[in-house]
Amino acid sequence: MAWLVTGRNRYPVIPFVFDPGATARHLLRSGTLLFLFELGPLALPFVALGLFRGLIGEPRTAIPLALTGASSLLFTAAIGGGAMTNLFLLPCALVCVVFLAAGIEPLLARQRATGILVLLGVLLAPHLARIYADRHPIGPWGLRVEEEDSTLPPAMLPSLRGFDTPRVYGEQALAAIPRGALVVAPWPELANLIYFQVVEGQRPDLTLEPADGGTLEPRLEGWQRSHAVSEAPFVFLSRPLELAEAGAPLDSLQIPLGRWIYVRRAPLMSAP
What we know:
The chain is of the alpha/beta class. It is 53% helix and 8% strand. The chain has two domains: 2-135, no CATH class; 165-264, no CATH class. It has helices at residues 2-5, 20-38, 43-57, 59-79, 85-88, 90-110, 112-135, 165-176, 187-198, 216-226, and strands spanning 182-185, 207-210, 234-237, 251-254, 260-264.
């Protein structure tokens, strides 16, 4: 979150501007996504009932939970997360599940059979919404659920258990990148290597930079002014350099996973 809010994943940094109108629209869209595909439309009244019960009976627990959920929802609306919306909504979804349980508990206690049927309906509703929206996107936003990684096979119960491709890629890339390099990468590859460097403490000798934005060439020029590029080269992940001096020799390395790494040991001609 800190990287997103401070804009450190983009160069030049995109300043955050609070737009009340856009935030209101994103708030409506985020809430619709949450109660359409994640929790289901039938969950909404029980979440409201659970929140009410919590505020009356356990305010010291309910109020922090409600504030956490509201903060998650408002943050998502203010940032306008796009494809990241569902990730930003996870705290809000977890809070809503707690209130959902508190809301449906009295019905289960009084009329167990009816409560179980209602609970099954609540659980089934989001699945039906996702199935319907797959062929008929819903509303003016065209809401539907898509698998972000097209390489994953479709499944009745999607799961990332055993999906180790990101770790394999990171380990292979770090093993192939020369020591002391300036690594320039698109965001998915950059985030992968940042994890290994920051969390696991691997390859602290590398300098990691995002590939996007209009300041890439000045950053490369700044690097070669303070480093010998022959010994501390430029490394580009997944795609080669797209600059005027792209004709300089590149060492292309294919890591076992099938991805490419491009190493440039020649300085930029435009730099002094």
